[in-house]
Amino acid sequence: MSKAPPLTYEAHLDEVATLLTELFDAEDQAAIAMVMRAQADDFFSGHDDDPAICTLKRAQQDARAVYTKYR
Predict the structure, then answer these.
(1) DSSP letters spanning 30-63
(2) Cα separation values, 52 from 4, 8, 12, 46, Å
(3) 6: exposed, middle or buried (C-beta count within 10 Å: 0-12, 13-18, 19+)?
(4) What is the C-alpha separation between 4 and 30, in angstroms, rounded?
(5) Tens-digit pLDDT profile for residues 18-64
(6) Which of 31, 56, 58 minimizes the C-alpha distance to 39?
């Protein structure tokens, strides 16, 4: 079983926003706003430095953390 390649940074942010709508019933605009606030707060700076951590599993973890901190 091969490991899925990492997402691009932008695709990772999109996935986090999508998960916010799916996991927490956030409206699209609210989910995007949370991701943008997190990005402005350097929440994702490590992801930009190390694109290998931009995985679907990490997106799920990030969605939960972003929701908790930026809702």
Answers:
(1) HHHHHHHHHHHTTTTHHHHH-GGG--HHHHHHHH
(2) 11, 9, 11, 10
(3) middle
(4) 29
(5) 999 999 999 999 999 999 999 999 999 998 889 899 999 999 999 99
(6) 31
